[in-house]
Amino acid sequence: MELSLDISRSAMLQYLQDRNWMEPYEEVLRLEKPGEGNMNVVVRVVGDTRNLILKQSRAFVNKYPQIAAPIERIGVERRFYALAASLPELRKYLPWVVGFDAKNHLMVLEDLGKGADYTFVYKKDEQMTAEELTAAVDFLKVLHEQKFDSETVNTFPGNLALRKLNHEHLFVYPYMEDNGFDLDTIQPGLQALAMTYKTDSVLKRKVSALGEIYLASGNALLHGDYYPGSWLRVNAGFKVIDPEFCFFGPAEYDLGVMLAHLHMAQQPEADIEKAMAQYGGSINAEFVGQIEGMEILRRIIGLAQLPLELTLEEKEELLKLAAKKITSNA
Ligand SMILES: Nc1ncnc2c1ncn2[C@@H]1O[C@H](COP(=O)(O)OP(=O)(O)OP(=O)(O)O)[C@@H](O)[C@H]1O
Ligand SMILES: [Mg+2]
Questions:
Q1: Which of 78, 117, 258, 302: disulfide with 298, CB 3.0–4.6 Å?
Q2: Tens digits of per-residue pLDDT, 216-262?
Q3: Would you say residue 79 lies in a domain?
Q4: Which residues contact 151 (CB under 8 A, 6 or more apart)?
């Protein structure tokens, strides 16, 4: 890798102008961190006429350099944007890809504007508006319903290396009795609560079978990480970013993950039902529930914690329901 994103303003301008991603008359005013992220290096280039977002992958998780991660993931993300942007109804939700530098594993995106990601919905009394929830479902529905030709499907990256890394955190790590992560540091009592699930062999067998499905392929183009951290609230409305975990898989996966987060964020049950009805389609509701349960479990007793404002009792209630959804047919 030749370019590191912690370069000076003038070096950045030179880099962008050399590739015609900025005009000779443009200026870089400053470089900013646009928001929170763990996986990659993301920089906002504030220019005098417009801004750009630069995203660079490394051979590891940026925040945890001891965890290896496939450096090709930025190329997979770019493929998703290219394919999704070919669908006019999805374009309005996504940033344009301005450029791609394969050698430096770097993608340049349109800056959607300063806003917040939707992780504020985990706060007590925060809600998505009806329009925002409708947009979130609309994006998923259009994405999943799209029939791509077999050449597109067959040549789309399997993203298996990144999926394997994710698989570990979704289906394995949370259920290890001794993984070195003391959940009481998150919330006193959570470790003991988690033991109920870490020692439930029926649940673990079912989760492990779900994990195999996650590693297999399917018919729909999935975003792969469809939760409030991948959604932006900006002036122009609801936007979707960060599809680095995308793959052709079962539509139920994205849907179940989204539902899990709506529940953890305590969104009104009526809104969640409306969202499901809007999605419609021929989905396997039981499978959606299993993915939803898996995501709730891994977010509460796994490593990738969320800023949840839930009491231990509320978490227990969610975990119980989650496990039930997974094992109902075991
Ligand atoms: N196109 C964009 N326009 C505006 N802001 C953006 C854009 N892309 C990213 N951001 C901001 O940068 C943050 C980090 O971006 P992103 O989520 O893509 O990085 P990441 O390293 O993959 O994060 P994570 O570890 O959460 O997966 C976002 O939460 C958002 O605030
Ligand atoms: Mg990411």
A1: 302
A2: 999 999 999 999 999 999 999 999 999 999 999 999 999 999 999 99
A3: yes
A4: none
- Identify the CATH number of the domain in which residue 167 sits: 3.90.1200.10
Measured over the CA atoms of residue 234, residue 236, residue 238 and residue 241, the dihedral's sign is: negative
Residue 91: give its domain's CATH number.
3.30.200.20
pLDDT digits (tens, 9 = 90+) for 122-149: 999 999 999 999 999 999 999 999 999 9
Pocket lining for ligand 1, CB < 6 angstroms: 34-40, 42, 53, 55, 95, 109-112, 117, 229, 241-242, 244
If one residue of 226, 232, 233, 240 were mutated to test the ligand 1 pocket, choosing by the most ligand atoms within 8 A of its CB, it would be 232
Closest ligand to residue 55's CA: 1
Q: Which residue has the tokens 């994405």?
A: 143
291 and 155 together in one domain: yes
Which of 87, 110, 133 terminates a domain? The answer is 110
Ligand nearest to the CA of 39: 1
